Automatic annotation (TrEMBL):
Residues where N6-(pyridoxal phosphate)lysine is found: K120
UniProt keyword Lyase present: yes
EC number: 4.2.3.1
Annotated GO MF terms: L-serine ammonia-lyase activity; threonine deaminase activity; threonine synthase activity
Top-level lineage group: Bacteria
Source organism of this protein record: Kribbella pittospori
NCBIfam families recorded: thrC (TIGR00260)
The protein's name in its UniProt record: Threonine synthase
Keywords: Lyase, Pyridoxal phosphate
Length: 419
């Protein structure tokens, strides 16, 4: 047993996780409610001592993220606690979209099928486990929308208090689909970076609060690895050659890379090469700009884009996204709001998948990367659809609707040329 403040952490609370490691200087810290290195104030992530893990062991698990329990910072009995059981979403063979774009093979990892219709259910489930094991009593977050939904829903399921902070001008559907769960929803005047700053201040002052993407971030972010695990398993235990991922804070991209790397080291897949590409909206593209300019530092920007779920002007993982893209031979690119809307419609028209604005960014960026020759059309490619289009209806509301309005008669049908 180990002690944090007034709470005793039980043995195995974080599964095979053994310590926290600084991503900047490598210094190690004990497992606990810590997120900044005591040596250099760099960000912390979970380190592991993995036993032998087999494909058969994983395949025998539940059809949600807990099948990967040995690879996550969660206890062996995590599935026995009330949670939203996210994951194991569809990997769709996107042949229609591939043909339209000139790709040999394309897959869409469709995370709109999660309980609150975005990938955030994965990271929140991991954060909820850490919150419980650390004895924290308030489940909280700053959010651009999808995380707000996931935190409020998970807290309701677990029977704990939630407090969610959002920008005051968030899309109305995301406000409603957070408030409906009955937790405390707080609208903050300003953009996401203002909200995040407030959350960090509260986390530093209030005891017993678990801000999922602040003071329990090391555990929270590990949930994104399950996207990598599922993609590899669904491909028949192999890695794709290319993957395009939307970038907000950048955590999803870096953890998918970490997941692929861990699978290779554990012998669960052949450690083949893959390229990682990041997608941003031009109105909030600090990582893409740094990539183009050859910089290692990401300069903060003030967001101005319809892709609000990606509108983080000072992305915490920005430098690490650059590292991953450059190390793997990928790239970070951005697209205009007009291209975002076209991307939403393109995916819907070709594959019957209605994505939110973040997915529109990803599809449009995929198209741009092909057109600019940065992405190999002959290589097997995966793109991430991180959320459901029903959350961002305003993006396409003035673009779609009835083709024609006719009287209720067959003659009118014929006259309109609809045969």
């Amino acid at each position: 047993m180990s002690q944090t403040a007034t709470h005793t952490i039980r043995e195995g609370a974080f599964g095979n996780g053994t310590h926290l490691s600084c991503r900047a200087c490598g210094a190690k810290s004990p497992l606990g409610p810590f997120y900044a290195c005591m040596e250099c104030f760099g960000p912390l992530e979970v380190g592991y001592d993995y036993p032998t893990i087999t494909r058969e062991q994983i395949e025998a698990g539940p059809k949600n993220i807990w099948r990967y329990q040995p690879l996550l910072p969660v206890p062996v009995d995590v599935a026995g606690f009330p949670n939203t059981e996210p994951g194991y979403t569809r990997l769709i063979d996107a042949g229609n979209l591939a043909r339209e774009l000139g790709l040999r093979k394309l897959w869409v990892k469709d995370d709109s099928g999660n309980p609150t219709h975005s990938f955030k259910d994965r990271v929140v489930a991991s954060a909820l486990s850490a919150t419980r094991e650390l004895g924290l009593k308030v489940f909280a977050c700053p959010s651009t929308g999808n995380l707000a939904n996931a935190v409020a829903a998970a807290a309701a399921r677990a029977g704990i208090r939630s407090v969610v902070f959002i920008p005051h001008d968030l899309e109305r559907p995301k406000v409603i689909t957070t408030a409906v769960y009955g937790g405390t929803l707080v609208a903050v005047e300003g953009n996401y970076d203002d909200v995040n700053k407030l959350a960090s201040e509260i986390a530093g002052e209030e005891e017993g609060w678990a801000f999922v993407n602040v003071n329990v971030r090391p555990y929270y972010s590990e949930g994104s690895k399950t996207l990598a695990f599922e993609i590899a398993e669904q491909l028949g235990w192999r890695l794709p050659q290319q993957i395009v991922i939307p970038v907000a804070s950048g955590s999803q991209l870096t953890k998918i890379d970490k997941g692929f790397t861990e699978l290779g080291k554990l012998g669960l897949v052949d450690a083949t090469d893959y390229k990682v590409y990041g997608a941003q909206a031009t109105g909030c593209s600090p990582v893409a700009q740094a990539f183009r300019d050859g910089h290692d530092v990401v300069k903060p920007v003030k967001p101005s884009t319809i892709a609000k779920s990606l509108a983080i002007g000072n992305p915490a993982d920005g430098p690490y996204v650059l590292d991953v893209a450059r190390r793997t031979g990928g790239a970070i690119a951005d697209v205009s709001d007009e291209e975002v809307v076209e991307g939403i419609q393109l995916l819907a028209r070709t594959e019957g998948i209605f994505t939110e604005t973040a997915g529109g960014v990803t599809v449009a960026t995929l198209k741009k990367l092909i057109e600019t020759g940065q992405l190999d059309p002959e290589a097997e490619t995966v793109i991430i659809n991180s959320g459901d289009g029903l959350k961002t209806l305003d993006a396409v509301a003035d673009r779609v609707g009835p083709k024609v309005t006719i009287p209720a008669s067959y003659d009118a049908f014929v006259k309109a040329g609809l045969q």
